Input
Amino acid sequence: MEIIKTSVIGSYPIEIDNMKFIKNYFNGLENFWDEYISAAVNDMIKAGIDLISDGQTRDPFINIFTRNIKGCRIRDRPEIINKLEYLYPIIFEDIIKIKKYLPKNKGLIGVIAGPYTLSESVVNFYYKNKMELAFDFAEIIKKEIDLIKPYVDLISIDEPFFSNKFPDYGYELIKIITKKLKCLTRLHVCGDVSKIIPDLINLPVDVLSHEFKAKPQLINSYEEYENNKKICLGSVRSDNIEIESVEEIISHIDQASSIFGEKIIQISPDCGQRLLPRDIAFKKLINLVKAGEVINGR
Ligand SMILES: [Zn+2]
Output
């Protein structure tokens, strides 16, 4: 049986010291953000997580991806004021830096904001329709993925907006960004995905990731379909400060295994942990790792 890996989805809560932040910013101190990123990465390593992310400490994930794209400007929400163009690398430099100090036995995740979610999250002043906008986002994201792919073990695409409405062109969008990728690809969709499972299991990605802990009924929804996708099982909640015990996590994984069998190759928090207090997020990861050890040790 394949070893189940422990993973995060993306974001991790690191408090920013505002005074220090402002001082570093105005002193023009380069790379002053690195300490926040390494704090997130080190927490994940210390907890024993196998697949590590950059923690997305810089910004909410939509802003991380829109701020470096020509044609976008960040106001209350990102605004599209011109045709989108890929100008600068988005997460590439952070990925390179993390890769340098990440222990060899750890995998690195390239966390990517999905084109549909980006197109639905911005204020559009330029494009005739959101479909055109989404396809331009997809082409730009593909360029970023081509840059980071030699350095990551998993490309994880965040598309929470798929659970609101799966667009007719959803398949084409994902196809653009995963085309010719050799590394493992994962699609994370939180929310209630029960009605779009037939769309999801057809997408050109290897792994599907959902919030199975907050919405355990999704496990049963999947049972109705023939599914060849691997599963990243949300196993601790991201919207709740109660720390799940190791036993509770194990019984959740066992229940899911009775439906998914060996398709479960990763266990993770339900979603990004950004909104949790740091000590709670950390303890949830520790218990996730302990549960994974028990499952893998059987
Ligand atoms: Zn999510």
User: Anything to note?
Assistant: The two ends are 10 Å apart (CA to CA). The chain has a mean pLDDT of 95.
